[in-house]
Amino acid sequence: MYWQKQFECMRREDLEQLQLERLQATLYRLGTHVPFYRRKLREAKVDYEAITSLEALRSLPFTTKEDLHGNYPYGLFAVPLRDVVRIHSSSGNAGMTTVVGYSKNDIKNWSDLVARILRSAGVTALDVVQIAYDYGIFTGGLGLHYGAERLGASVIPISSGNIKRQIRIMRDFKTTALICTPSHALKLADVMMDTGVNSSELSLKYGVFGAEPWSETMRREIADRLGIIATDNYGLSEVMGPGIAGECRECNGLHINEDHFLVEVLDTATLEPVPPGEVGELVITTLTKEAFPVIRYRTRDLTRLLPGACPCGRTLARMSRILGRSDDMLIIRGVNIFPAQIQAVLADIDGTEPSYLIVVDRENHEDKLTVMVEVTEALFSDQIRKQWALAASIQERLVTDLGIQVQVKLVEEKTLERIDSKGRKVIDNRTF
Ligand code: DLL
Description:
Blueprint: H1 5-8, H2 12-33, H3 35-43, H4 65-70, E1 84-89, E2 99-103, H5 104-120, E3 128-131, H6 139-151, E4 154-156, H7 163-172, E5 177-180, H8 182-194, E6 206-210, H9 216-226, E7 229-236, E8 241-247, E9 254-256, E10 261-266, E11 280-286, E12 297-303, E13 305-306, E14 318-319, E15 324-325, E16 330-332, E17 335-337, H10 339-347, E18 352-363, E19 366-375, H11 377-380, H12 384-402, E20 407-412, H13 415-419, E21 426-428
Parallel strand pairs: 3-4, 3-5, 5-6, 6-7, 18-21, 19-20
Antiparallel strand pairs: 1-2, 7-8, 8-9, 9-14, 10-11, 11-12, 12-15, 13-14, 16-17, 18-19
Bound molecules: 5'-O-[hydroxy(phenylacetyl)phosphoryl]adenosine.
């Protein structure tokens, strides 16, 4: 039932003592090894060697994604590169990429925390775990892989792509736990239906889903169609990747691995804590990371802390599923996309006007991204071949920069204001 009971079921006062000691160590590490943080702490008039209570967290400066961009690639690393054994990164245009590093010890902790989440979702060493996240620079594939191996499960690193093969392997290899995004799980269910594979032919028992927003309705649909217990897990690469919080089999909120992460839920306007149980932005301070610790990282994810004890016996606080974002980031097929990335590509291409509209749809459980771009009248009345060439070159640039498929539609000047008089840059038609 537990992976590390001694930490998952701690008494609150023991946990807080541990958190304080780890916070002190983290601040010392950052203050001595990372000039950016030394300067920030000095500017905030924080004597990091004199912190004696967790309340002092409130006096510490925030870290934002922009801070990560500004220190690209290695400026915020707190150990020399020779001690970094893994590097992950988000996709993105130059200047908008985040890079994170892990020491040997970070990888060990990361694996333990992911193992913890898998175990609390029901998975054990006896399970056959199929991981259908992208294996690569995204933290999902390798993060879950190391955690599942640490648990001792038999891991199938199927990765993303070739859905029919995924289903065949799931059936033939008697996979018992499926790990992927929730939309991918529904896509698998669709293709199973189309190809006449019934869930009773599979051995699936558990689905551990994360990396994108979903809902209780989706949970019920996945659970019914695949015949499994479906749990939610949350993480972000800037803080670690998966392994930050995950649901137990009560399926009633995600336990936060508080012995490694100190969390706050703040009002997005005042950046003061919201009253207990209310929705705010999740802000995370790492407590054990060596290579890439962060202080008060503004995740921009909205959630709330859930009151009361969990019947599973874990004393780790629980948060609700992610309820939205406090910025304009979109998650498309598990990939994080900012409208500004698209704008930057368009600004670079001759013949395009600054007006664009991003339309996101979900068809057959798959996200579709369309970028409508206004082009000058001269170009629009030009030969169709020229237009195709322009659309193709925009598309190619966007696919390279964003790392996902995009459809580009060129439209005449003033078309977009007719489609959306409010001048929005994004229309997201998805319902979760
Ligand atoms: O998505 C890490 C991860 C991989 C988590 C696999 C869980 C499983 P990033 O690519 O950095 O990292 O994206 C992080 O995705 O800030 C949220 O907005 C969103 N997100 C992650 N998990 C959930 C979830 C990984 N369970 C961003 N529900 C985060 C809703 C989620 N949104």
